Amino acid sequence: MDLNKIPKSLNNPVLADEIVRAKELLEGVNEADQTQTIIEFFSMVIHEVKNPLAAIRTMHESFFLELESDLRDRPEVIVYAKEYSDRILSEIDRLNNLLSSAKHFSQPEKARWELVNVVCLIDEINDIYSPLFKKLDIEFRISSNAQFIDFFCSKDEIIQLIINLLENSKNAILISNNKLRKITLEILLHKSYFFIIIRDTGCGLNKDEIKEIFKPSRTKRKHGLGLAVCRVIAQRYKGRIFIHSLKGQGSTFALVLPLNQSQCK
Q1: Gap between the Cα atoms of 263 and 139, Å rounded
Q2: Which residues are within 8 A (CB) of 40 and not within 5 positions of it... i.e. 6 or more apart?
Q3: Predicted confidence (pLDDT) per residue in 82-109, tens digit
Q4: Do 131 and 218 sit in the same domain of this protein?
């Protein structure tokens, strides 16, 4: 039955409300079916591509080593060849990272859980990203209202979640025209929850883009699977991600996670 063909001028308001609810449910089912189709497609692609990709990388590295040996008396050619070789390896690694994200999204593995100090974890990420942001002329600041937030989790999953959010902010800044290039990461402990709030001065999003932001099919602005994976990981820990954004001004992503059996000081 096509619910759209039912006359809108119904005399029974209760029946009209039920029809509206039914249409909303159907729309939710359709979206779920679409997501499941995407997940099944990713699983197939990962299986068919990841192993050959590793072989391509290995063969390329072996080829370049032989080339470097044959051209040892022509250093100017080696420099030129290495530049292109690095580009090839960079693209291979980028595709590998995309496939790893797809694998995590479609078939998450059972991770080893441990008690992790989130504040120290952010410090580790800061050690990685500070040099990169400095090179890109992006100001990066971190603040926290607690010294210890012990969270029982998979350390790798939380690292991936935070890195994906930072990568999203970085990409938003790189394609924006804003003169102020800044990312802040704030850690807040409040009662039985903790928040990781990431703000950027990037290109920002309009209302329609915000609605699509966590869908795995969204690739504009280089989101790819990153934010879809973030939401999957957050939901695994009964958490949520909120977003506030203004087109042309920047975005704020707020990750909220319950401490549950974790301990804080």
Answers
A1: 32
A2: 106
A3: 888 887 887 787 777 667 666 665 555 5
A4: yes
